[in-house]
Amino acid sequence: TVSGTTEQSEVEGTTPPANEIDISAQVDAALEELTSSVLSLGPNGEAPAGFESTELTADEVAQIQAAGLTAAIVMHYAGNDWSSAQIEGLKDEFARLGIEVVAVTDADFKPEKQVSDIETVMALNPDIIISIPTDPVATSAAYKKAAAAGIKLVFMDNVPADMVGGTDYVSVVSADNMGNGAASAHLMAKALNGQGKIGLIYHDADFFVTAQRYQGFKDVLSQYPGIEVVEEKGIGGPDFAGDAQAAATALLTKYPDIDGLWGVWDVPAEGMMAAAREAGRLDLKIATQDLGTNVAIQLAKNELIIGLGAQRPYDQGVAEARLAAAASIGKTGLPVFVALGALPVSHENVLEAWKTVYSVDAPSSVSSVYVK
Amino acid sequence: MSKELGPVIEMREISKSFGSNPVLKAVDFSVEVGEVHALAGENGAGKSTLMKILQGVYQKDSGSIYISGSKVEITDTFSAKKVGIGMVFQEFSLIPSLTVAQNIFLTNEPTKYGLIRDSKAKSLATELFKTMEVDLDPGRLVESLPTALWQLTEIAKALAQDAKILIMDEPTASLAKHETEGLFSLIQRLKKKGISIIYISHRMDEIYRIADRITVLRDGSRVLTSRLEDLTPEKIVEAIVGREASAHLLHHDRSENISEEIVLELENLTCGSKVQGVSLKLRRGEILGLAGLMGSGRTELLNTVFGVLRPTSGTISINGKRIRNNSPSDAISNRIALIPEDRRSQGLVLDHAVTENLTLPLIDQLTVAGLLSSKKVLKKSQEIIKQFEIKLAHPEIKVGSLSGGNQQRVVIGKWLATDPEILMMDEPTAGVDIGTKGEILDLVRTIANSGKSIILISSELPELLSVSDRILVMKDGRVSKSLDRKEIPNEEYLQLAIQGAS
Amino acid sequence: MSNQTAFAPILSRLKRFEWRQNIIYIAFVAVFLLFAVLLRDSGFTNPNNLMNILRQTATITVMAVAMTYVIAAAEIDLSVGSIAGLSSVVTAMSISSWGLVPGIMAGLSVGLVAGAISGGLVAWLKVPSFLVTLGMLGLLVGVARWITASAPIPIADQTYIAIFGGGQLGPVPTIFIWVTLVVGIGAIVMNKTKFGRHVRATGGNLVAAGYTGVKTARVKFIVLMLSGGGAALAGMLYAGRLQSGRFQWGTGDELSVIAAVILGGTSLFGGRGQVIGSLFGAVFIGLINNGLILMGLDVSQQQVVRGAIIILAVALSRKK
Amino acid sequence: MSNQTAFAPILSRLKRFEWRQNIIYIAFVAVFLLFAVLLRDSGFTNPNNLMNILRQTATITVMAVAMTYVIAAAEIDLSVGSIAGLSSVVTAMSISSWGLVPGIMAGLSVGLVAGAISGGLVAWLKVPSFLVTLGMLGLLVGVARWITASAPIPIADQTYIAIFGGGQLGPVPTIFIWVTLVVGIGAIVMNKTKFGRHVRATGGNLVAAGYTGVKTARVKFIVLMLSGGGAALAGMLYAGRLQSGRFQWGTGDELSVIAAVILGGTSLFGGRGQVIGSLFGAVFIGLINNGLILMGLDVSQQQVVRGAIIILAVALSRKK
Ligand SMILES: Nc1ncnc2c1ncn2[C@@H]1O[C@H](COP(=O)(O)OP(=O)(O)OP(=O)(O)O)[C@@H](O)[C@H]1O
Ligand SMILES: Nc1ncnc2c1ncn2[C@@H]1O[C@H](COP(=O)(O)OP(=O)(O)OP(=O)(O)O)[C@@H](O)[C@H]1O
Ligand SMILES: [Mg+2]
Ligand SMILES: [Mg+2]
Questions:
Q1: What's domain B9-243's superfamily in CATH?
Q2: What number is the ipTM of this complex?
Q3: DSSP E strand boundaries for B148-274
Q4: Would you call D140 and C307 a contact, using CB atoms and an 8 Å cutoff?
Q5: Contacts of C248 in chain A (CB under 8 A)
Q6: CATH number of C20-316
Q7: What residues contact residue D265 under an 8 Å CB cut-off, 6+ apart?
Q8: Average pLDDT for residues C180-198, to the nearest whole number?
Q9: If pLDDT is split at 50, 70 and 90, which confidence band does C4 have?
Q10: What superfamily would CATH give domain B258-335+423-428+457-502?
Q11: Is the pTM of this model over 0.90?
Q12: Among the partner residues B55, B93, B96, nearest to C271 by beta-carbon distance
């Protein structure tokens, strides 16, 4: 999927040093490997099943449509592209299946609010709840109550503590977070030709998804001994762009010769971009996660952002809808852990990647600034 | 033990300064058992400060205090209470959001099983008011009361403490005749019970009525202590102001200064139930007095003319032109000014500097190229400070730290500086010392002589009689009588008119 | 004549009924009826759902009762949310190390100590409570994160969970007992004891209260300490309900708590304190959240409507 | 004699210097020197780094200047953060639809209109600004999410980015020009004009100001409208810096902004307004953040130390 690397080095017009060819080849091979396999395992070590395992037959669809089901979506946070795309995928697929979405809630990252939200939507007696727990321990009791009421639960990314797939809940659909972290590490290595100093900006919270990416990134980075991590800085939010900007500014101040930065998702990366611009460091190489609009624009412009590992939230939503619907009509043998492969995105493939992630064409704000 | 001889309070060589401003200079002061001891002096002489030291609100810098012969250290209001001192504060110690009864018994609440019995407090308060001959519902929130009732509540609060020494700092400043009389008979009864009273007032007649002895302070020093029968009123005034005072309370006929031109005309002005169909004409150069009992609606009438209250019906005309005063700023642009009844809540921003308070309505005159000039502000302020002899350490000092009378002068100065055509004054001399009171009344005459018109509310009838050309008596929101000054032979006649007997 | 005297107090009471201060009850009933009609098929009036609303607002209610005292004394406490978080963490850690009772004591002490520090600074150094408690807010969250490395601390003790979380005493959920106790004591102390009176006097006019012999500094110290204690109890209720302690429990609650208090009729400028009003203020906010979710609105629509309802309720409370 | 008169005003001024109100300058210098020594090898005093601190606090500063007026008038505005977010979004959308100038106008109008609505309710219906602007806070975030479906709206217009973001006018970054303009005008209007005086009088004593002819309702309306305008400008600066509009820009800024104002010496109870102090308050907070990050502290440690510094700075400002 990542092509044109040789072209790029030709454009730069220099004779590549010997090690660059090695790195490029190594990276391309590694990325190839990544897209076709999933690094993450399920919450109980389950092997991942693919997106295709969630397909429904025409018969099943008809049966579902006839059942008159209702669903509620209980998010941890609904204010970013990832959540929007996921909800979009869920709603589209539920509509296709004739399932009414009766409630959508946003816990604003607060477990106690999420527990309340679960209790509240249960008053509507939905057949299905699709949810991502903000906190596995704190929300567990509430989810168990829902499960006990016969509601079919499908989770995104993470499951509550002490709940067993296939019995307490139907399934968990996850992005390959480790894989996405790994992808951005490979892309970073490639952009730096395997040599340089970088700083990392991570999410300083006990949050499964972001922790996995961070892990994935660091694991892969250790394969590239030429890259030195000069400092890691955590950000706590809620103003992630601002926090990341401040952290990036500090790194740029302290290490004027720093070559690159990694940000734990696109919103912090936007703050890091602002810091780079203010420091006049348009040569800085930033790798991140998630294909948000603003980072996509930078990728299209081939400026600052050199690559990222993207999730496929829309497809994830579709898969969750299907699994829940299937369980509701009593289908058995459903996979308890479905993972969608990592998607490495760089300048070359950003437009196709957009289509893959959001199942629509890239908006003109992205496509129109694409530099060949 | 109880038959202690000698003074119940003795303060020796008390000194106190605020910053670099010496306010009390080695003052000696003593009070006998069962004595009413008057404390007099100009505004800012240090009377309130001396008493606040006794009450534990301020700490003395040096000197000593003896209660019934033994030396005490009064470090806070608690220790003052413990030795039996209670005080009626000049600037009030009431909590606006509590009821009258709750205020009266604050820190003294009647309780049962640890819970407050508000009904008991209310009935105790009702009894208290009965002895004061005041009709006031103790269940009312203090914030809804007019100034005079605040004052009565403040007095009741001090009485409820069962103190053996009672300090009263200008308790009658906002009271009219009737309430004052009630207070006096109460003081006589307290005296009989052996309670000592320290009485601060600027009203000479009151001091003569009730006090046994008097102490006069000037500029923080004691200048006189004597039994009253040994003194003439002139001597006291001289001690207070430091020179012979003029006879400002004499009425002068100034009819030659009054033109026939009507500047302000009210026709059937009504505002709620407090002002009902008031019609009046104010001529150029005239000083119109408003008399009436408490609650007769005088304040509301002026407030309606000034745009603080909206009339429900009737008209206001200025120079023959009908106007609409929707707010004080409209009234001000019609060259009307009002010196309000309550200086603390209506007249001043206590936290702001004197200069800022003085120049607030004058800003337009003090700009250079659209921006305020600090130089002009200071110059103008100093002019006003000088004219009204406002006593302060520095013009930038917060107005809240001025003495009561000086605060009142700031309010008067601020409004007179706007050079209004129609000046309305609601109890303007409350708390102002005897020397300045005369000067203010002279100023009122001068202003009127220069072709301005004045409406004056005063509960002090001699004052009202001395300057007014005409007096309207109000009762229940209506004008019950309009008297030419010449028709009023004496104070008693006016008093009867106010009470509605004649 | 006797008739008149019997009616007079009621009449005068009605006349003195302040719409502005009591708008919360009217708004509460209005919104409740509105939802009951609109959502009659969505289970809004289902006893279970109503119970849930009360349960969900219990923590805010507890903090709001304590905050009523702080605001009545003309101070403010922005640190309640982070005290709750820290207390949940400390309780959870202490229970697992030393058992139930020491755990509860430790959790409560955290709040009282934190409140006492803020209170001491405000009362005796006379510094603005807004800044002190804002500093405290950051400091305590930081401490809670630090000692837990931002991770949740699970609570296994079933007794604790029964007492502070989902347990029942006979047919009554324990959480209602907590709320009833806190609101009941809070209301009685505010209206019927010297302390409550002195709190309102301090907030109504600090100088006057001081002249009258109210120990205003001590009052301020105590209200802030109590607020810390209330927040700690709320944190322990969070911990019971979420079966774990974590620094995030309570994050951002300060604004909701203050809003509940002011909606309930307590003035931000002090001198007044309506404990029952605060209860209704807290439940009112929970009611709106619940109803809007049941309506099936989008998240953004929920925010818009919730904001509009608050503005509307407040606007209706205008002085006529 | 002439000597004495020349010195007298300076001396009396020094004597009247209020430590309490001017603590921010002392705290600022102290913290600055501390960091300069501790972090001499980490580039803290690097001109670039200092520039960055100013740049990053620009949005808070702009909002704090406007908020100084609101607080001086004894009101509060909790909606500034969400006005900034909405304005960033509206600006971004309008620029891409209609171009630069209409975009700027639209962004600014959003703030002025939102502020005018709050202001109108506060001024003429006399409802507490805390609740009105809290309602507004939710409402506007909801609107911003709704119209953008929670997505960022990129800004491609380079002129806009130059003016509101990282551009320079000659050697001077445009953002400094904005800050200088806002602070300069803010300080002059507060101290040197009738309006500023009226704002402080309104906040100092509403009734007395009214009796003196100040149109207090109009003053309240205008300060809240201005605060909306200031927040909109801040939102546009966010949008320029981050090259996009997003509902989250500005989230949670209200507390930082109010803290900056109060640190700067403006009293939460109104009557006082120190615009320059607010600038220093805002930069002070930025300074601490920057220094603590450069020190390499963890998020939790940063929070603890930041909280402690604020408490300490405030405690030192106590009346002696
Ligand atoms: N808290 C304070 N801070 C600074 N100066 C003060 C303070 N209280 C009083 N003063 C000053 O002390 C002096 C004496 O004031 P005080 O109130 O004792 O006068 P007073 O004799 O009661 O006058 P009045 O008759 O006007 O009430 C005045 O100059 C006043 O400005
Ligand atoms: N004795 C009283 N008991 C209860 N309320 C009273 C009493 N006297 C006046 N009030 C209340 O005070 C308010 C206005 O009275 P106020 O004393 O200001 O009128 P006024 O005629 O200006 O009196 P004054 O002559 O003292 O200025 C009204 O709300 C009235 O109900
Ligand atoms: Mg005095
Ligand atoms: Mg009156």
A1: P-loop containing nucleotide triphosphate hydrolases (3.40.50.300)
A2: 0.86
A3: 165-169, 196-200, 213-218, 221-227, 262-271
A4: yes
A5: 109-111, 135
A6: 1.10.3470
A7: D20, D21, D22, D23, D24, D272, D274, D277
A8: 95
A9: very low
A10: P-loop containing nucleotide triphosphate hydrolases (3.40.50.300)
A11: no
A12: B96
